[in-house]
Amino acid sequence: MSASNGRRTALITGASRGLGSAIALEQATVGSNVAINYFNSSEAAERLCQRIQQTGRHACAFKVDVRNEGEVARLVREVADVFGGIDILVVNATGPQPLLSIEEQTWESYLDQLEFFVKSPLLLLKHVLPGMKDRGFGRIINIGSEVFELGNPRFANYVAAKEAQLGLTRSWARELAPTGIRVNLVAPGWIPTDRHADATQDELDSYTQDVPMKRMGSLRDIAKIVAFLPSDAAGFITGQRFSVNRGNTLA
C-alpha cells in the first residue's frame, strides 16, 4: 500500500461535486485515503475534504486541469507527496456536454469530448503507472456511460468519445494484466446531478418509463460499484464494462 497509514490512496478526478463527490465519499467509507481533483469548484472541494476528514479518513484537494500534461504530472507528484502514491485512479472528470445536431457539430466539438475521455485518461495513466508497477498493484476505473449503446441523437460527439474510452479500457486491461494492474469501466445510466438541474419531471418520467426497474438511480448506486472494483473481492476482474442503469441497456 502506498500510504504510511496502511490505507490505499484513491485519486478521483472531477470529484468536487456530483458523481465524483459521491465516489470520493464512498472511497473514504471503505477506508481509502482520498485525493480530490477539481478544476473550478474550490469551495465545494474543500467542503468535501472536511466531510471526509470528519469521518476519521484522510482527504486533500488538488486543483488541476486533467487535460494538461504538465498539470497532470504535478497532480501525481503532489498526491504522492501527501499520501505516498496512488493505488486507485478513478477517471471521472468531464466538461460541457452540449446537444448538437449533425449540422451544428464540428471536428472541434468531437475533440472537446476526446480531451476528457481519451487524452485525460492516457495522461493520468502514464503518470500513475510507474508507481503502480513498482508496487505490483493498481486499479484504474474509467467512468463511462450507457450512451454508446443507446446512440443518443444530437450527441454523437459525446457518444463517440465514450465508445473510444471503452476501447482503451479493454486494451489497457490486456496489456497491464500481468503487472497486477486492473482496468475496468463503469457505465452509468442517467443519474440526475446538479448538471441536470433544469431537467423537468416530464423528462425524468420519459426516461424511467422504458427502464425495467422503473425508477431513477442514485449517485451512491454508482459510487458503490466503483468502490467494489478496487477491493480484494474484485481482484480477478479486468477489462470489463459494468452497466449500472436499472437494466436500460438490456438487449
Features:
251 residues; Rossmann fold; 8 helices
Explain this structure:
- 45% of the residues lie in helices and 15% in strands.
- It has one domain: Rossmann fold (3-Layer(aba) Sandwich), CATH 3.40.50.
- The chain has 251 residues and is an alpha/beta fold.
- The model has no long low-confidence stretch (mean pLDDT 93).
- It has eight helices and seven strands, in the order βαβαβαβαβααβααβ.
- A seven-stranded parallel beta sheet has the order 3-2-1-4-5-6-7, sandwiched between helices.
Walk me through the topology:
Elements: E1 9-12, H1 18-29, E2 33-38, H2 42-54, E3 59-63, H3 69-83, E4 88-91, H4 107-135, E5 138-143, H5 147-150, H6 156-176, E6 181-188, H7 201-208, H8 219-228, E7 241-244
Parallel strand pairs: 1-2, 1-4, 2-3, 4-5, 5-6, 6-7
Helix pairs in contact: 1-2, 1-8, 3-4, 4-6
As residue ranges, the low-confidence spans are: none
CATH topology: Rossmann fold
Q: In percent, how much strand structure appears in the residues?
A: 5-15%
Quantity of strands, as a count: 7
Helix content: 40-55%
> Which strand order do you get reading across the main beta sheet?
3-2-1-4-5-6-7
The overall number of domains is 1
Through-space gap between termini = 40 Å
Rg from alpha-carbon coordinates: 18 Å
Order of helices and strands: EHEHEHEHEHHEHHE
Going by CATH, the architecture would be: 3-Layer(aba) Sandwich
Structural class: alpha/beta
> What is the class in the CATH system?
Alpha Beta
Overall mean confidence score, pLDDT? 93
Q: Tell me, what's the shape?
A: globular
